[in-house]
Amino acid sequence: xxxxxxxxxxxxxxxxxxxxxxxxxxxxxxxxxxxxxxxxxxxxxxxxxxxxxxxxxxxxxxxxxxxxxxxxxxxxxxxxxxxxxxxxxxxxxxxxxxxxxxxxxxxx
Length: 108
Description:
The protein has helices at 9-18, 35-44, 60-69, 81-92, 103-107, and strands spanning 24-26, 51-55, 73-76. By secondary structure, the chain is of the alpha/beta class. The chain has a three-stranded parallel beta sheet, with helices on both faces.
């Protein structure tokens, strides 16, 4: 996997605006704008990237809030590595161990 890191919600929105991402993984409890503001802004901007809320907010109400906000999955911290990988793979629509080419590679 290729990972792009953003320092907060505004930077993440800029990254989303620059190109194709297969999955967005975001903390909910970020300084400044939180993950709920990020996903709301992303959805308002027309970004339909599958999104995972990775957060210490682990109650059932927190999961419901994340899903209603626009995330497709909610994963409580601390998450097991295998569970995180399986969640990202599921959101990306791929089976573990398979590869795909980016749109840039397909046109090259």
